Amino acid sequence: MIIREFKQEDQKAVEKIFALYWTDPEFLKELSDELQSFIKMSLNKDLGFFVSEESNEVVGIVGFKKLADYLRPYATTNTPVELYVIAVKHKRKGIGKKLKMKLIEEVKEMGFGEVLFFSPNSHDESWNFHDLLDFERVGEIIPPDDEIGQIWRKVL
Predict the structure, then answer these.
(1) What is the DSSP letter of 21?
(2) Does the pLDDT value for residue 34 go beyond 80?
(3) Distance in angstroms (rounded) separating the CA atoms of residues 136 and 154
(4) Does the pLDDT at position 42 exceed 70?
(5) What digits encode the pLDDT tens for the residues 117-128?
(6) Cβ(63)–Cβ(84) under 8 Å?
(7) Is the pTM for the entire model greater than 0.70?
(8) Taking the domain 2-155, which CATH number applies?
């Protein structure tokens, strides 16, 4: 498996992976729009996506973006970033873990001091995964335009 930066030609495969996890058309459009923004502004330090590829097939994606305002009270450094999305085609194959490790490595090299992210209660089946790699559950919140969920943090 290789992990590399997302490219325009990955978009259809990535959108199929997103559809495995999310059904809300607004959120799926937001994800698609963020991918397009990344392609247009690839030197933007506030947004990044990486894909995992096996046998020339995209099997997962991870992305980060500028920290959402509702997460800021949970930040402990002046240089936080948000783990925006992580999704894989096949669960329990180690793909998500490798993608998460890649994101941590990349944002640390970029000078970010911590990673925070939100997962709604409707995605609680993924919470054990999020507890891995020294991420700490630090609170419960109802963000704007979403349901109640948990916040995780990892200081780098």
Answers:
(1) T
(2) yes
(3) 6
(4) no
(5) 999 998 888 888
(6) yes
(7) yes
(8) 3.40.630.30
Burial class (CB in 10 A: 0-12, 13-18, 19+), 97: middle
Domain segments of the chain as ranges: 2-155
Residue among 123, 124, 154, 118 nearest 139 (CA): 118
DSSP states of 102-126: HHHHHHHHTT--EEEEEEEGGGGGG
102, two tokens: 């890649």
Q: How far is CA 108 from CA 91, 113, 115, 146, 149, in A?
A: 26, 7, 9, 28, 26
Mean pLDDT of 89-116: 95
Q: 14 by DSSP, 3-state: which? A: helix
- The pLDDT confidence band at residue 145, using thresholds 50, 70 and 90, is confident
Averaged pLDDT for residues 69-75: 96
Measured distance CA(17)–CA(23) in Å, rounded: 11
Three-class secondary structure of residue 150 per DSSP: strand
* Alpha-carbon gap, residue 74 to 56, rounded angstroms: 39
**Predicted confidence (pLDDT) at residue 142 exceeds the cutoff of 90:** yes
| Secondary structure class of 82 (helix, strand, coil) | strand
